[in-house]
Amino acid sequence: MADPMNQPGFNLVECPWIPVAETGGLVRLASLRELLVHPSEFSGVATTVPTEFFALHRLLLAVCHRAIGPGTPAQRETLLDNWPAEMIQGYLERWAHRFDLFDEVRPFMQVQALRSVEKLETKPWTQLALDRSSGNAKLLFDHSLDESAGVVAPAQAARLLVAHLQFTPGGLVKALRTSGTRGPACAIQVVLPLGKSLQETLALGLVPQVQSEYAHDLPAWEADPPAIETLKAPPALVAKGPAQRYSWLTRAVLLRPDASGQVPGALYAEGLNLSEDPVPDPMATMVPGKESPHPAYLDVERAFWRDLSALAGEGGGSPPRVISNAVAMRAARDDYSPLELAAGGLLPDQAKILHWRLEERRVSPALLTPGSVVAGRLDAAIERAREVSLTLYGAMMDLCREWISLGSDRKPTDGDVKALVRELNGLARYWAELELRFWTFADRLGRGDPPDECLSAWYQDIRATTLNCWNVATALLGDDARALAAQAKASSRLKLAIAKASKT
Of 42, 91, 372, 499, whose Cβ has the fewest other Cβ atoms within 10 Å? Predict the structure, then answer.
C-alpha cells in the first residue's frame, strides 16, 4: 500500500474511477468491486472517448477472465443468468494490493524500477492523454502547452493510463532505447458486443479458454514487473491470452502524485514489445493478406459497415472471437434479437493520431452466423458496392483527366488528376450515401425478408447512388463545352459502373 507519511493511496478496487450508467439512468464513477461484483446493476461503461471505452472494457474482461477461470462455451453461457459474484470478490480481495495506483512497491500497471533510471525526466500528465498535445506530438485542435498542463485527479489518471497502454501509437520515445511499439489495440478495428446490462456485456465478451491457455495468461498485476535491463533490450514477446493482451505494458510508466494525491506528471519510457502472433486479438476481425491473415485495420475512409460480412467469416477471414462467442450464446437460448455492437479504435501515423472512432450498431445475429444464406447475401452486397466504387473511381479519373487536358497544353500528371478527383469528393460521397441505404438493407435482410429481393433492392440503391454522385461531380465542373466534352469521353466507364450496379 502507499506510504501514508508520503502520499495517499488510491486503490482501484475500492475507489470510484470508472464512469458508468446505472440501470436507472444515473451516471457516476464506480470502483472495480462495485462493477464486477454487481454488474447487473449497471447498464454499461459511460464514456464516449473511444480509447477509454474499449480499454476499460478490456480491463474489466481481463479481471473476469482471471477471476472466473477457463470455461467451455456452455459454462460461459450460464454467466448470463448466474454471475459468480463470490469468485470475483475473492479474486479482488486476493489481488487488491496490486490495484493501488500509488503503491510504493507494485503500483497498478506501472514500473516502479523507473525510479532508478538516471536522467529520466518527469513528463506532464498529458503524455498519457491521447487527445492532448504533448512534446512533439501536436494535435490540430489542442493548443495546450506541457508547461501549463496542471494536474489531474487520480481517477482520471487511472483511466488515461489504462487507455494509453492499449492504444499508444508506436514511435520515438528515446528514454531507454530508440523507440517503442504500438499498443495491442492500436490501429485495429476493435469490435465488442454490448448487452442490456454490464453483466451481459461481460458474459458475451468472455471468450472460452482451455486450461493450458489460462495457466499462462497472466495480466500485468499478476506477472513479475519488467526489469530495466529487459526494457532496454526487450525480447519478442507473444501474448499468452486475452488477460495478458488486455493489460499489456506497452510503455513503462510511473505516476508521480503530489502530496494531495493529484497527478501532475509521470516517468515515462519504452515498455514491452508485443510481437505479431498467431493467436489474434479476441476483438479483431482477421482478413486475408498477401502472405497471411491480418487484423482488419481502422481506416479513416472506411466505415464499419464495409467489413460487416467479415464478422461472419465471409470473404476468407475469421470473425472476432467475442462475436462468435456472443452469437453462439444467443443461439443457445433461441434469442435472435438484434445484437448491439460497438466498433472503432484509434488510427495513428507513427506517433501522430490521425483518427479515432466509436460507433454502435444493432445487427441481427443472422447476419453474423457463418455459412448462412443471409451472411452470404450480405457479403455479396458489400462486394458489389466495392466493385462499383472501383469502376466509378475510374470514370472519375477519366472525367478529370479529360477536363484538365482540354484546358491545358500539357498532358496532366496522375497527381493532377487524383487531386481533382479528391476535390470533387465523388468516392467519399458515394460511400457516405450508401451507408444510409445499407442499414435499411441490412435490417430487412436480418429480420427475414426474402434475401434475393433485399439484394435486388440494394443493387438499385447502388445504381441510384452512383448516378447521383456522378451528377454532383459533373455539376461542380460546370456545363460549358469543355465540361460536356469531358463527360462524353468518360461516359463509357460510367455506363460500365451502372451496368455493374444493376446486374442481378
Answer: 499
Q: What percent of the chain has pLDDT over 70?
A: 95
Residue 148 CB-density burial (10 A; 0-12 exposed, 13-18 middle, 19+ buried): exposed
Axis crossing angle, helix 426-446 with helix 414-424, rounded to the nearest 10:
50
Show Cβ contacts of residue 132 under 8 Å, excluding neighbours closer than 6 positions. 126, 139, 142, 144, 149
Range in 1-10, 17-26, 107-116, 183-192 with the lowest mean pLDDT = 1-10
Q: Where in the chain is the domain with CATH 1.10.132.100?
A: 374-502
CATH 1.20.1260.10 fits 374-502, yes or no: no
For residues 290 and 252, is the Cβ–Cβ distance under 8 A? no
DSSP state letter for 230:
H
Mean pLDDT of 297-312: 91
CA gap 167, 459 in Å, rounded: 38
Q: Report CA-CA distances (Å) from 501 to 37, 307, 398, 400.
A: 53, 19, 19, 22
3-state SS, one letter per residue, for 139-191: ECCECCCHHHCCCECHHHHHHHHHHHHHHCCCEECCCCCCEECCCCCCCECEE
Q: Are 176 and 231 in contact (CB under 8 A)?
A: yes
3-state secondary structure of 339: strand
pLDDT of residue 143: 46
In the beta sheet, which residues pair with residue 27?
Answer: 21
Over the stretch 244-255, which tens digit does the pLDDT of each residue have? 999 999 999 999
**Radius of gyration over every alpha carbon of the chain, rounded to an integer in angstroms:** 26
